[in-house]
């Protein structure tokens, strides 16, 4: 249980740090900066604690929790837990996000094949992530070299 809580804390920390390593299109830089979290209350709670009263540029950071795929609404970042199948739900997720310029973050093996841009993996007990630059490029997001150099694997 303690290990899961620690892992959720680190995942949330990574997610908050990813924000500044993405080249966001101008139309995403208006209104609140929304991070959606699907079915992962521990990560959502950590994100809320880490982003309380913080801004990204002039945007307030808002964490929205979605209990299921049906609840998803547009957001700049979407964190999709492994409690549901990203691959099975990918078409619904893309439709819900209107194929927008949302950064999709997952924790399911093979999720980058279905449109995820950053996918968490645990290897040798350590939290790592893989990146799909092609998926990010397709949605107008530019991943910085600093971010890609930190990733465990880059999938083009």
Overview of the molecule:
The chain has one domain: Rossmann fold (3-Layer(aba) Sandwich). Helix content is 33%, strand content 28%. The radius of gyration is 14 Å and the shape is globular. The model has no long low-confidence stretch (mean pLDDT 90). Strand 3 and strand 4 form a beta hairpin. The protein is of the alpha/beta class.
What's the gist of this structure?
The chain has helices at 2-18, 41-51, 86-96, 133-138, 145-150; strands at residues 22-23, 33-38, 55-56, 59-66, 77-80, 103-106, 118-123, 126-132, 142-143, 153-155. The protein is an alpha/beta fold and 156 residues long. The chain has a single domain, classed as Rossmann fold (3-Layer(aba) Sandwich), CATH 3.40.50.2300.
